[in-house]
Amino acid sequence: MWITGPIQIVGVNPYVVVDASTATALRPRWRKPMPVLVKLNGEPSLPWRTNMMPTGQGDFRLYLHGEMRKASSTAVNDVVTLEVSFDEEYRNGPLHSTPVWFQRELDRDDVVDAAWRNLTPSRQKEVLRYFVRLQSDEAKERNLQQLLRALRGDDVHYMGRDWVDGK
């Protein structure tokens, strides 16, 4: 299915709106995050796997992370063409294992471990996917400390969202 629209932004998160009729054509009566395969302006050759997020009004937001926009040379306010299909091979749950440096903190702190286990599977998956892309030790440590603060219940802004009470 082809979708054309402007890249909008909420907070720091760029997205394209997928209207209710288009979402229904992809998968009727779907109300939770919808797993899809996406090409943005024809890029990349193998589509990205991601989720469209429901707005609660029947529409979805298809968030476009930095790698997607970089590969397609697009930016906020650009009008883009998306090739989108339902990801029939999607399997729920984290795709990445917990890094040793994060697991050490979970084992060390019962409050952090309980808060981590209480996160939704999709939030855990999002964090682990983010962690696996970190390259430098400095980035790993900086992100670990931010997540630990969030899981301990501090109000922090991390990964493009506000965390309140460990969520």
- Poorly predicted sequence stretches spanning 5 or more consecutive residues: none
Which fold name corresponds to the CATH topology of the largest domain? Elongation Factor Tu (Ef-tu), domain 3
Largest sheet: 7 strands, antiparallel
In the residues, how many domains can be counted? 2
The CATH architecture category of the largest domain equals Beta Barrel
Distance between the termini: 34 Å
Q: What's the total count of β strands?
A: 9
Shape: globular
In words, what does this structure look like?
With 167 residues, this protein is an alpha+beta fold. It has 2 domains: 85 residues, Beta Barrel (Elongation Factor Tu (Ef-tu), domain 3), CATH 2.40.30; 64 residues, no CATH class. Strands 1-7-4-5-6-3-2 form a 7-stranded antiparallel β-sheet. A two-stranded antiparallel sheet has the order 8-9. Strand 8 and strand 9 form a beta hairpin. Helix 3 packs across helix 4. The chain is globular and about 50 Å long.
